[in-house]
Amino acid sequence: MATGKHGKEKSFAKKAGALLLSIVMGAEAMFGFYISAEAKPDERGSTATKTYDQYDLDGDGKNETIKLVREKEEDGGVIPFVYVNGKKYDMDDSMGANAWVNSVELLKVSGNTIIFQVEKMDWTMGYVVVNMKYKYKNGNLGRSSGAYKVSYVEKANTGSGSYWKKDHYLTVGDKFGSYTGATLYSDKKCKNEKGVIKNGKECKIIKIYLYKEKGSSSLEESIYVKTKDGKKGWLRTGYEDGAAEFSDTYTAG
Q1: Which residue among 51, 187, 201, 228 has the highest number of C-beta atoms inside a 10 angstrom radius?
Q2: 136-153 as b/e, with b when 16 or more CB fall inside 10 Å?
Q3: d(Cα 9, Cα 195) in Å, to the nearest integer?
Q4: Residues 169/246, Cβ–Cβ less than 8 Å
């Protein structure tokens, strides 16, 4: 996960993310609402550093220095990085090409395991906050394999107050009426179909799973959901045909 040169696909995804984030922030300024209920409005453009030096991650009797840093890029965007003992880690590298990270908070440390609360802009779910688990081993920080709990998603709020609100539910469908429903799978790599979630049905977003197909270097993402009428299973994410779409996010449709 140590930062290095990104491939063309990753570079495109990050630039697209920065462009979309700029558009979103412009809309925030124009219409007077803010997207994240977790981060304060000024934190999205903040370059403040948070430092933690009370944790001995490798058991050698000396505490590591963990820094959460938000650095400005040439185009004006602000990208979060994690430093451990001066070594820099790009959180985008461990999230896949279909998402870009907006903010990172340290949630919990146990032994050599760190749980970060990561807010990312996801192609399918829009803004989503996920509890991501990392391990510090042999002087390196790396993402642990497995599924990760979704703290909340941000969806359109048709009631009073802020236009966007924290929620765990998203509504299957798109904004243009051409989507017919989300294919539900029984396995987390989305190989075995088990049914369809029809347009208009709400799904509780429970967790995400990141994986690589055999022979591929790119990360794929699936999400585990439960509908209000009891259906459970996995949905594909991304921008290719067959991926799930939701009508009440920034990126659906």
Answers
A1: 201
A2: beeeebebeeebbebbbb
A3: 32
A4: no
* Cα diameter, the chain: 60
Answer whether CATH 2.40.128 is correct for domain 8-151.
Answer: yes
What would the pLDDT profile of 126-147 be if each residue is shown by its tens digit?
Answer: 889 999 999 999 999 999 988 9
- What amino acid occupies position 147? A
DSSP state of 186: S
- How do the domains of the chain map onto residue ranges? 8-151, 153-236
Mean pLDDT of the chain: 80
Q: What are phi and psi of 11, to 5 degrees?
A: -60, -40
The top-level CATH class assigned to 153-236 is mainly beta
Domain 8-151 and domain 153-236, same fold? Reply is no
Q: Determine the pLDDT at residue 4.
A: 42
Q: Are 235 and 221 in contact (CB under 8 A)?
A: no
User: pTM for the full model?
Assistant: 0.78
Query: Between the CA of residue 129 and those of 23, 28, 57, 160, 175, what are the distances in Å?
Result: 20, 19, 25, 23, 23
**Residue 12 backbone phi and psi in degrees, to 5:** -65, -45
43 touches 53 (CB < 8 A): no
Q: What are the backbone angles phi and psi of residue 120, rounded to the nearest 5°?
A: -130, 155
